[in-house]
Amino acid sequence: MSKAISQEQLQNFQADLDKHEGHEVNERAVTKNGILSVSADYRSEVAMDRVFSIDIDTGKVADQKRSGRCWMFAALNTMRHSMREKLHMKDDFELSQNYTFFWDKLEKSNYFLENVLQTAELPTSDRKVAWLMQTPQQDGGQWDMLVALIQKYGVVPQTVMPETFNSSNSTEINKQLNLKLRKDAVELRELVAANKSDADIQKAKEKMLNEIYRMLAYTFGEPPASFDFEYRDTDNNYHRIENITPQEFFKKYVGWNLDDYVSIINAPTADKPFNHMYTVEMLGNVLGGRQVRHLNLDMQTFRKVAIEQLKHGESVWFGSDVGQESDRKKGIMDTNLYHQDELFDVDFSMSKAERLDYGESMMTHAMVLTGVDLVDDQPTKWKVENSWGDKVGEKGFFVMSDDWMEEFCYQIVVNKKYLPKDLQEILKEEPTMLAPWDPMGALA
């Protein structure tokens, strides 16, 4: 039976507040300064000093500015790290995030329109249709989605396709593109309802994509089919690369076998037993390209493979819930950073599984692990390269406590050679399909 709050209950609540020692002091402090400032613990900053037993030199940080491309920046950063070392590139060298952004928007548009056709006979009130229409496309993505883009389109240096107003501030193009995609969805669903032929429907879709391509060209510029690239290395030697395609550039100068890199997650929920593969329905960008696939592992193994890759001098892409217990300005992520529970005398504790199941947490941001501090061979804190420019943290680098990783890290990408043989075999299994709204489908 529903029950409203009674006057008697309100009197009891106030009486209980009056009994809390120091409640007036707390009230004055919090109303004036805010919850985080009052509950902050300076000892966290002391514990999170910036010294690491394993520390990879990765040069200057990048800046995604006012866009949601962290997954893209983090992935391209891991690639430029190895290029920088092999080719003696200067610290400010970057691969073009605008180039991959262009193709991601186009491919996501096609992916959305195909999902519209797949669900066209369902009512708009159906949860899957509503899920599609809520956000036809967005800036975020997954590691496997960037792999799909690179395998199809390659990469280019940032100087070949530099940032534009819209790549650095994507609000306007996202609004216009989602408006168009929803309008296109109306037309496609009407064509299906009218029993139009597949040829007619695909012709209509091609016209839609042609218009989207034009929108993206105006917004981000036209992506090059081939290009010339020149640079000076750290020894001031001049290099010039002529008439090379983006695919050739990736193969020659990055040189990674992207099939070797796999997504590892830690999702300790009852519906996802460890040591199994998972994928997410309607999650992707390049139709027919690389499928999003996750191997779910316990946290001990999760850490171990990340450390192994760092020990071999290679940075690690990872996804986490960056807004939890973090200080953007200081660049600290630590479960002891704030003590809101002590301030309010309220128990806020939830397990990692409970936070995932009840919507309290999910992956929101991708960054790069570039170091770890091992004490008695156990991690205590991690060095993190962010993509928010050099005005936050320590010149853009953050520090993350191992306890924070335990609670709020959900995904890493590692070379499968660092996995034990039995786990490498699991990579071959057919993945369990998760619902489109599953938290492991969250885009960084």
Characterization of the model:
This protein is of the alpha+beta class. The chain is 43% helix and 16% strand. The protein is built from 17 helices and 14 strands. The chain has helices at 7-19, 23-33, 35-39, 42-47, 70-87, 97-118, 127-134, 143-153, 165-168, 171-193, 198-220, 246-254, 299-311, 340-344, 352-357, 402-408, 421-426; strands at 54-55, 227-232, 238-244, 261-265, 276-280, 294-296, 316-320, 326-327, 332-333, 365-375, 378-385, 397-401, 409-415, 432-434. Strands 1, 4, 5, 6, 7, 8, 9, 10, 11, 12, 13 and 14 form a 12-stranded mixed beta sheet that branches. Strand 10 and strand 11 form a beta hairpin. Helix 6 runs parallel beside helix 10 (171-193), helix 6 (97-118) packs antiparallel against helix 11 and helix 10 (171-193) runs antiparallel to helix 11 (198-220). It is globular and about 75 Å long. The chain starts with 6 loop residues before the first helix and ends in a 10-residue tail after the last strand. The mean pLDDT is 97.
